[in-house]
Amino acid sequence: MADQYAGTDLGGQPPVPPALRWAEPPEGPVVVLLDQTRLPTEEVELVCTDVPALVRAIQTLAVRGAPLLGIAGAYGVALAAVRRFDVEEAAAQLAGARPTAVNLGYGVRRALAAHQAAAANGATPEEAAAATLAEARRLHQEDAEASRAVAARGLALLDELLPGGSHRVLTHCNTGALVSGGEGTAFAVALAAHRAGRLRRLWIDETRPLLQGARLTAYEAARNGLASTLLTDNAAGSLFAAGEVDAVLVGADRIAADGSVANKVGTYPLAVLAKYHHVPFVVVAPVTTIDPGTPDGASIEIEQRPGSEVTQLTAPAPAGAAATGPGSGTLVAPLGTQAYNPAFDVTPPELVTAIVTEAGVVSPVTAGGIAELCARSRQVTIS
Asked: Given 253, 258, 291, 345, which residue is catalytic?
């Protein structure tokens, strides 16, 4: 039945550009971002010469996605150190830019700790800055390695859950190279299945209200030649009812100690649908997304976004245009309409079939299983 749907199956396109890179032009070091607010219509780089610029990029979602936010936070601290800004103040600004994604604070703390350790050992400012940059680069490399590992583990799990291949996978939001130092988390698993000839169809939720699925995941799917089809978020139920979904693959912005998963809003309803229709619901994330300091889902702080993101539609701005903001879009609701716009929702562990990390798979998802995974992983150092 899936073959009747209009889809995308494009190959031979150039790869997705790097989502983030460190550069050292003559005028001084900078953090260069692929501006994700301009995608898919334009591939425009955003150059951050200081931490406030990087904070704005994080808050406006020019750079986004839990693993990449950790990398951005670490490079932001390095940028402050190299340019001789107040490193402690820069770290505080970065860590508070978005509250739900635990990786952001993790990356900031790692880079800050490297700077503090170097300074405590008598390093010059230049040496301390170099140590901070080296730590950011180390985190970047670790995330790339984690991405490769979760892709392999996730594909093995899919093959175990769905013998015979020809997987039809539903995903939500964007979890590919645009959120990672490598090829992503959940999307990396789908990409591995595609390369192995075992992905029949990638169903892509458009992901309201900012359309990260439509703008970003569909863009990455086309660039990698995946057979994919875009759907509105509220069409997912009809897909499940028609038996068109074999598994759900999503990422995570924070995983609590009990296995509760905070992810882009709209994830929890998918988990409920998957449970009802006996479809595996799999969360794919690096170990750094697990926060042992958050005991349960109720303890996760949920970011509230501006209501204008719901009441207006804002198209990507052309290159060189002024940045858009509240009030700059096309109204789709009466002026003055109040909107409820949480950035994330929380899926309880009993709805999650498995959590796939580079250090192993937790299934069933329990507090004990999460604790065991953290105990054997050298990467979980979150305090």
From this structure: 253
